[in-house]
From TrEMBL:
<keyword id="KW-0004">4Fe-4S</keyword>
<dbReference type="InterPro" id="IPR006656">
    <property type="entry name" value="Mopterin_OxRdtase"/>
</dbReference>
<dbReference type="Pfam" id="PF04879">
    <property type="entry name" value="Molybdop_Fe4S4"/>
</dbReference>
<comment type="similarity">
    <text>Belongs to the prokaryotic molybdopterin-containing oxidoreductase family.</text>
</comment>
<protein>
    <submittedName>
        <fullName>Molybdopterin-dependent oxidoreductase</fullName>
    </submittedName>
</protein>
<dbReference type="GO" id="GO:0051539">
    <property type="term" value="F:4 iron, 4 sulfur cluster binding"/>
</dbReference>
<dbReference type="Pfam" id="PF01568">
    <property type="entry name" value="Molydop_binding"/>
</dbReference>
<dbReference type="GO" id="GO:0043546">
    <property type="term" value="F:molybdopterin cofactor binding"/>
</dbReference>
<keyword id="KW-0732">Signal</keyword>
<dbReference type="Pfam" id="PF00384">
    <property type="entry name" value="Molybdopterin"/>
</dbReference>
<dbReference type="InterPro" id="IPR006963">
    <property type="entry name" value="Mopterin_OxRdtase_4Fe-4S_dom"/>
</dbReference>
<keyword id="KW-0500">Molybdenum</keyword>
<dbReference type="InterPro" id="IPR050612">
    <property type="entry name" value="Prok_Mopterin_Oxidored"/>
</dbReference>
<feature type="signal peptide">
    <location>
        <begin position="1"/>
        <end position="22"/>
    </location>
</feature>
<keyword id="KW-0479">Metal-binding</keyword>
<dbReference type="GO" id="GO:0046872">
    <property type="term" value="F:metal ion binding"/>
</dbReference>
<feature type="domain" description="4Fe-4S Mo/W bis-MGD-type">
    <location>
        <begin position="43"/>
        <end position="99"/>
    </location>
</feature>
């Protein structure tokens, strides 16, 4: 474990009278109080990151006698901002979970698993990978990872060595429409809002309190204290309302209408005259129909509300923007999310907010990482998902699952991606995995996905191995580097780098991995102007942000583009126009509601679903229940606390109802990630239902995002 050599610094603080205090006592204030006779506090301080959510907050772990004693969020990391959120603190000791997979497993004829040796597992998987390549070409192989640095680089390199370009980030699937719509307009794929200095921010569908990065919450609080206007556009009033100055209860899936009307209003007010926009007149002509009254009709907000919002944005520009966050809810959620992202990118351009204080900072890709030892090898074949989903930036993971279902992808490697639990229509995904000639899950714990795979490989947790660095953030970009914190709790578990290198050996492409994680990490750090030792010692190293003066638009016109030939080819208009969601409550008649979802503070994807204390909290407060609008409930004869049945053609399930004014009348809401279906995850047994069960396996045209909220359900009182 190279961390020991390079990063572990033993800090020693004796009691108040101790001699060592002078050297390092300040670092450990509060830890060392006590009489002079008390044993010294000796901790190894190792920098690492929380991987519970994509914020990947950097933190320092204080390790005493091989165990994590305390964790301190890294102050230099803009996500952590000196602390972690409750989920991060709670999961810092996840390695000790009783449910870890303890050895490689192979599925037997009768569907059970037998323990096999690593040699046997890696040899057999490697040979099958090579055979599939021989028979059907590298394009018949695909991988989905959680998108964390080491997994993504190693898996890409392995697949490219096998002739496959088909590697997808599950985490990117969750923002694919935002990334791709933004890319169509600007050539960039992500931006981050400078909340702290903003005068106004319009946040579309992000539960910023319930999914918090501590840094985002602190920055929004700072903005509020300075008098900023924070507008939450959300179909329900989530806990995030506490950070907002206004809540706009939009009809779910109709934000595009709102954004188009705002664009029209901004142009009317003369904004954008100096903006670097190509084909603005073409878009201006299209926008003329999108009056506030038109948008009000569609999205359920008053025309006056839309007028005021537009006027306020114009007034606050350039320290004002539309924030799409992840617009997560899985990548897009709606048939119009990609176009919404494109329209929002153009509105932000009209506001002049790109990379100016208080605006939205585009994140430049790390150009220096284009050619590393760990970079993918050249592959002739094109990404198989691009044929149908040409707009998807970095590919469409769900389409890879569909191709597996149809038989053209035969080998699937899933690294920390619980696709059978978290994609729409879990049965479809299950079948896709079961139809593969080879399916492999790399995971620390048994999951619904692992249970559909032929092989399950026990993985070390993030905290149990050294990692490659990652660059994140745009307002204050940083390079984070994580080192191993503790010895592996499960002796048989291997890191993703070890597993991938082993598979390469089994598939006879071992030459592709003639470097170590430390070698590759050092190369990456140096490309960013840091030394490996220095980056590991501080954990988070600041990098320069992209300034407005240095912004060069990586588009064909060298400007932000209102028109996109690629979008037009995918069946959209050249410039963003109104696109109806795929299904609409009104079209189906009275009694059909859109089933929305969203995160909730005590639950973190499926990683915490099996946690007993969290399950108890959810049970006690009824957090796994269904939200229903009070007027809608009254009309249906449903009262607070009733047991109801929600139903559509895909599923039917009983659930306790929470009747509230705080949700838009056409929407129902079920918190994400409840409804664990795996028998071995016993703590979560019987808690809640899985929203994805009510959703068909369908994807957003061109963009390839799962349409997680394009589904309608009926609600009736149980027994009625
Ligand atoms: N506690 C917790 N935090 C997490 C996670 C977790 O599992 N649990 N997961 C992490 C991950 S992977 C991600 S991608 C992020 C996602 O974080 P966010 O981007 O914030 O996404 P969600 O929490 O899924 O949903 C945000 C809000 O959208 C609202 N909403 C639903 N439908 C609509 C709609 O049609 N229109 C509008 N305007 N609003 C709508 C919901 O009510 C919810 O309040 O969270 C991360 N943080
Ligand atoms: N209905 C509904 N579906 C959703 C969403 C939603 O809001 N509602 N959100 C979507 C979004 S934004 C995303 S990113 C995806 C996420 O969906 P998933 O791909 O399911 O991601 P995770 O649940 O985070 O789990 C990934 C896997 O990481 C592994 N893992 C890594 N570290 C640990 C650990 O410490 N403990 C445990 N137990 N497992 C670990 C396990 O194999 C785990 O199953 O879900 C999407 N699906
Ligand atoms: S926001 Fe919380 S869960 Fe997400 S990475 Fe940071 S500490 Fe971990
Ligand atoms: Mo996500």
């Amino acid at each position: 474990m190279s961390a020991k050599v390079i990063t572990r610094r033993g800090f020693v603080a004796a009691g108040v009278a101790g001699a060592a205090l002078a050297a390092s006592g300040a670092t450990l204030a509060g830890c060392a109080a006590g009489p002079a006779t008390e044993k010294a506090y000796v901790a190894d301080v190792v920098n690492t990151q929380c991987t519970v959510c994509p914020n990947q907050c950097g933190y320092a772990a204080y390790v005493v006698d091989g165990n994590i004693d305390k964790v301190v969020g890294n102050a230099a990391d803009p996500h952590a901002a000196g602390t972690l959120c409750a989920r991060g603190f709670g999961m810092a000791t996840a390695a000790a979970s009783a449910d870890r997979v303890e050895s490689p497993l192979r599925r037997t004829e009768d569907g059970r698993y037998e323990a096999v040796s690593w040699d046997e597992a890696l040899g057999q998987i490697g040979r099958t990978l090579a055979d599939i390549r021989q028979d059907a070409g590298g394009s018949a192989l695909a991988a989905i990872t959680d998108g964390t640095s080491t997994a993504q680089w190693y898996v890409r390199r392995l697949m490219s060595a096998l002739g496959s370009p088909n590697v997808y980030e599950n985490a990117t699937t969750a923002s694919v429409s935002v990334a791709s719509g933004l890319a169509q307009a600007t050539g960039f794929t992500a931006y981050e809002v400078d909340y702290a200095r903003a005068k106004m921010v319009v946040i579309l569908g992000a539960s910023t309190v319930e999914v918090p990065s501590p840094g985002a919450v602190a920055a929004l609080e700072e903005a509020r204290a300075a008098g900023a206007q924070v507008v939450m556009v959300d179909s329900r009033l989530a806990a995030s309302g506490s950070l907002a100055t206004e809540w706009l209860p939009v009809r779910p899936g109709t934000e595009l209408a709102l954004v188009l009307a705002v664009a029209r209003g901004l142009l009317e007010r003369g904004l954008g005259a100096e903006a670097p926009l190509a084909d603005l007149d073409q878009w201006r002509a299209v926008l003329s129909d999108y009056t506030p009254a038109w948008a009000a009709e569609i999205c359920g907000l008053g025309a006056d509300v839309i007028e005021t919002l537009t006027a306020d944005l114009a007034q606050a520009a350039p320290a004002a923007c539309i924030d799409l966050s992840w617009m997560a809810l899985f990548g897009g959620s709606y048939g119009n999310t990609g176009e919404l992202a494109r329209a929002a990118a153009l509105v932000n351009t009209l506001l002049g907010c790109w990379n100016v204080p208080g605006g939205a900072y585009l994140a430049a890709p790390v150009a220096a990482w284009a050619d590393l030892s760990v970079s993918p090898l050249p592959v002739e074949a094109a990404d198989v998902t691009a044929e149908v989903y040409a707009l998807a930036w970095d590919g469409a993971a769900p389409q890879a699952l569909r191709l597996a279902h149809e038989g053209s992808i035969r080998g699937l490697l899933l690294v920390d991606a619980n696709v059978a639990a978290e994609y729409p229509d879990p049965d479809y995904v299950r079948e896709a995995l079961e139809r593969c000639t080879l399916s492999v899950a790399v995971t620390p714990e048994m999951t619904e996905t692992a249970r559909c795979c032929q092989f399950v490989l026990p993985e070390k947790l993030w905290s149990e191995s050294d990692q490659l660095p990652a660059v994140t953030g745009a307002v204050h970009p940083v390079l984070n580097l994580s080192s191993a914190v503790i010895e592996p709790v499960v002796p048989e578990a291997r890191s993703v780098a070890e597993i991938v290198s082993g598979l390469a050996q089994g598939a006879d492409v071992a030459d592709a991995f003639n470097f170590s994680v430390a070698d590759a990490a050092a190369e990456m750090c140096e490309a960013c102007g840091c030394t490996y030792a220095g980056a590991a010692a501080v954990g988070t190293s600041s990098l320069a942000s992209l300034t407005a003066e240095n912004l060069v638009w990586p588009t064909a016109s060298g400007k932000v583009e209102c028109a996109s030939a690629a979008c037009e080819a995918a069946g959209y208009s050249a410039t963003p126009t109104w696109v109806e969601p795929t299904v609409a409550p009104d079209a189906l008649g009275f009694g059909y509601y859109r089933l929305t979802t969203g995160n909730q503070a005590p639950q973190t994807t499926t990683k915490t679903a099996n946690g007993a204390p969290l399950a108890a909290i959810a049970e006690q407060y009824g957090l796994d229940g269904l939200w229903m609008n009070a007027a809608a409930a009254e009309a249906a004869g449903i009262a607070e606390g009733d047991k109801v049945v929600i139903e559509n053609e895909y599923a039917s399930a009983p659930v306790r109802v929470h009747v509230t004014e705080l949700i838009e009348p056409t929407a129902l809401y079920l918190a994400s990630h409840y409804g664990v279906e795996d028998d071995e995850q016993q703590q979560a047994d019987g808690l809640g239902i899985r929203q994805a069960r009510f959703v068909p396996f369908a994807l957003e045209r061109g963009y390839g995002a799962p349409l997680l909220q394009e589904t309608m359900v009926t609600v009736r009182k149980a027994g009625a």
